[in-house]
Predict the 3D structure of the following.
Amino acid sequence: MTQPIFMVGARGCGKTTVGQLLALTLGYEFTDTDEMLLRSTGQSVAQIVEREGWAGFRAKESEVLKRVTGVCKVIATGGGIVLAAANRQFMQSHGTVIYLHAHADVLARRLEAFPQDDQRPSLTGRPIVEEIAEVLLARETLYQDAAHHVFDAAVSPDGVVAAIVRQLQPQCQLGCSRP
Ligand code: ADP
Ligand code: MG
């Protein structure tokens, strides 16, 4: 298998961490849509949203998703990428979609432990675990819908990668040689 692997899931589930490790293991290239957006626009997610609203951000995100998709790539996506049906369909038909599933308390603990990693301030002043639970509830079906495979993201990054490789092994060409 040389087709791209898309990592989807809520903020803090490990799309970047596990995605990087998976890419290293498979000899794939790693890309992060949030990171690419930052590089190509010079603006953070928060800045784009402030200037162009969520609709503007989502349009740019879909564009970047298409642009970065390619063979032998692991692509970490933003937590809200699945909101657009077109994005779900694009990922489904262009590669293998992996959903890293974790409960809200696990995600909250991680984001609280490493607030420098991409944490946006609470909009409501409510405990972060409540906000995460609400977002998960709204998106769970979409993540499940988009995914070819679902993995437990609560184990160590090495453990998640091992489970993914075990599952994909029959199709997976380790040490991908890019054309
Ligand atoms: P995402 O890209 O999905 O938002 P990150 O990869 O940035 O998530 O991970 C968020 C935080 O959680 C980071 O501090 C990371 O080190 C930690 N983390 C990610 N995956 C795991 C894991 N499987 N076990 C423990 N900590 C993890
Ligand atoms: Mg990330």
Q: What stands out?
A: The pocket of magnesium ion (ligand 2) is lined by residues 15-16, 32, 76 (CB under 6 Å). The radius of gyration is 16 Å. Residues 45-68 form the longest helix (24 residues). The first strand starts at residue 5 and ends at 8.
